Amino acid sequence: MTSTIETTENLVAGLYREGAPVADTKAPAGPLQNRWEQRKFSARLVNPANRRKMSIIIVGTGLAGSSAAATLGEAGYNVSTFFYQDSPRRAHSIAAQGGINAAKNYKNDNDSVYRLFYDTVKGGDFRSRESNVYRLAEVSASIIDQAVAQGVPFAREYGGLLDNRSFGGVQVSRTFYARGQTGQQLLIGAYQALERQVAAGTVKTYARHEMLELIVVDGRARGIVARDMVTGEIQTHLADVVVLATGGYGNVYYLSTNAMGSNVTATWRAHRKGAYFGNPCYTQIHPTCIPVAGEYQSKLTLMSESLRNDGRIWVPKKAGDTRDPREIPEDERDYYLERIYPAFGNLVPRDIASRAAKYQCDDGKGVGPAVDGVRRGVYLDFKEAIERMGRAAVEAKYGNLFDMYQRITGEDPYQVPMRIYPAVHYTMGGLWVDYDLQSTIPGLFVTGEANFSDHGANRLGASALMQGLSDGYFVLPNTINDYLADAPFEKVPESHPEVVEAQQAVKERIRRFLSTNGTRSVDSFHKELGHIMWEYCGMERTEEGLRKAIDLIRTLREEFWRDVKVLGAADELNQALERAGRVADFIELGELMCIDALHRRESCGGHFRAESQTEDGEALRHDDEFAYVAAWEHGGPDGAPVLHKEDLKYEYVEMKQRSYK
Ligand SMILES: Cc1cc2nc3c(=O)[nH]c(=O)nc-3n(C[C@H](O)[C@H](O)[C@H](O)COP(=O)(O)OP(=O)(O)OC[C@H]3O[C@@H](n4cnc5c(N)ncnc54)[C@H](O)[C@@H]3O)c2cc1C
């Protein structure tokens, strides 16, 4: 193994300062298998009569938020939910295609809670917490029971048992699915549970409301400032506790598979108010997306990882081979994943499959139309699967995904192989939370993709839905009570200086956006930021590139505030204004991501530092130096972010170089 990273003193001088370590004080000790039980037992309770006196704000009604709101409403708390779509059913969670993992061992293929735990820790390249991951695996089976009880139509086998398929990074079949619409079906289940509480009067919903600021009073999160996106009214909402379930920030790259509205504003505003941001540079680039077609594209489309169960990935052996793929004989094809990783084949984890595709294209073996002179695509071929299973069986399993591909590309994947290329898909980073899912601001809890989550440096497929629903249905409802045992807290008047200050800050920001009257559209800034992030903080990162990116982003930020043009008014539906706020926050986040990526002078999972790789091009970790969560505090007195390290200890899994060969 080789590593060329030098431990240069003051490598990042001037970019950040190091603060005291941060500890997860809620994590129980003792045997791994007992920790969750132990924490549930030690957490203080709130009796049902007292719950009625307490109020909870939940921002976000995707899977993580809807499940939490429904469960806490059912428990008897007064819940208010906020979301920017017109219905909870339009949350980005609806896009999830492939499935949700659970350790049910229905296939009798040697699966277990322990194996799911092990696969997830290894898949995350040993950068997640053992206690959290074990809890996630333990709770996974209950999620499926909950969803089935709600009527979620998971695929079934002929005998009636729920069917399973495989996802990357594992050798068992533990992924439950509802065709290619798993997220949608799970969301309908969570949504109807939520609506039941709305009808019962425990949950109130605020559609088309965007949270623009967190209200912190006497050190505790006590509410939010939200904008009614239809009327423009700036409102204050106060409560005993605030939960953010606002999703991931992949759209910092402009082009991603995320919904167009997905953004970082809620978590970034909380970060600015004191919540630490965990591992911001950990981004997942998904290997199977429809390749970028040109400069004017604003969205990328995922082709579910489930397709790798039956599709085979290949490129022509000869660089620059532009023949119709059907005319390229078998012995002139390179099924490179099967060749390099015989044990896992096409189902290696996403980070590994993505980098492998990039290397093939960098070597000139990419396929499809060239963009900027380079063909960035590899084939995902179902010819053999169609011959083996028959077209009808392939259609039954993947039909809607094939239709989607055909509608977007105009090519029929039953006839010609799909073309795929990696794209930004998911963010493992997010607000730092303890075992109870509480951030560093007391009273601010964070669930789902919005927290820094249990996936370490790389998330395995079908585990985001598992984590969001685990947080919402099972974890938060058993930990938030420990905090609320001291509530209800003293009522905060709307005239409280902290409340007034938060409201004023929101109004002033809006005024600034609308009065700058520059020459450049918000989108042009977003696009430029995306280019910088993809180029220098994307699939491969270097010290030189990251330093350049930080300079470019600082210049872009200055230009944004000087030259942005936002049309329309504050007191009306104004999408340019909405986007301006989101892009301003993305620019600040982008800088922190690059600083985080620069400081982590190792490769792990999706964070690939070109200077730290093994001889055969795999990610090379430096456990002696970097086995920690990087929890970033917003700028200290000199404006530089402060790094707090949370050491990661492995008592049950041996930390070693990942191998999928
Ligand atoms: C194309 C695609 C396919 C995927 N497929 C799978 C899969 O098969 N299996 C899997 O496990 N994972 C999959 N994932 C990942 C998974 O879908 C997400 O990680 C997960 O759905 C996130 O859920 P969430 O509830 O945390 O956030 P979201 O679903 O993103 O919900 C965020 C919520 O927050 C609200 N919100 C955000 N900001 C604000 C604000 N400032 N004010 C008010 N409201 C706000 C939104 O309105 C929304 O209600 C996929 C992701 C993509 C992009």
Order of adjacent strands in the largest pleated sheet:
1-22-21-11-19
Quote the distance from N terminus to C terminus.
16 Å
Number of strands: 22
Gyration radius (Cα, Å) is 24 Å
Strand % is: 5-15%
Summarize the main sheet. Answer: 5 strands, mixed
Report the helical percentage: 25-40%
User: Count of DSSP helices?
Assistant: 17
Spans of 5+ residues with little confidence (pLDDT < 50)?
1-11
What do you see in this structure?
The chain has 661 residues and is of the alpha+beta class. The chain is 36% helix and 15% strand. It has 17 helices and 22 strands. The strands form six sheets. A five-stranded mixed sheet has the order 1-22-21-11-19. Helix 3 runs parallel beside helix 6 (182-200). Mean pLDDT is 95; it is low at 1-11. The chain binds flavin-adenine dinucleotide.
Q: Any descriptors?
A:
single chain, 661 residues, alpha+beta, 5-stranded mixed sheet, 5-stranded parallel sheet, 17 helices, 15% strand, globular, disordered N terminus, binds flavin-adenine dinucleotide
Describe the structure in brief.
The protein is an alpha+beta fold and 661 residues long. It has 17 helices and 22 strands. A 5-stranded mixed β-sheet has the order 1-22-21-11-19. The protein has a 5-stranded parallel β-sheet with strand order 6-3-2-10-20. The protein has a 5-stranded antiparallel β-sheet with strand order 12-18-17-13-14.
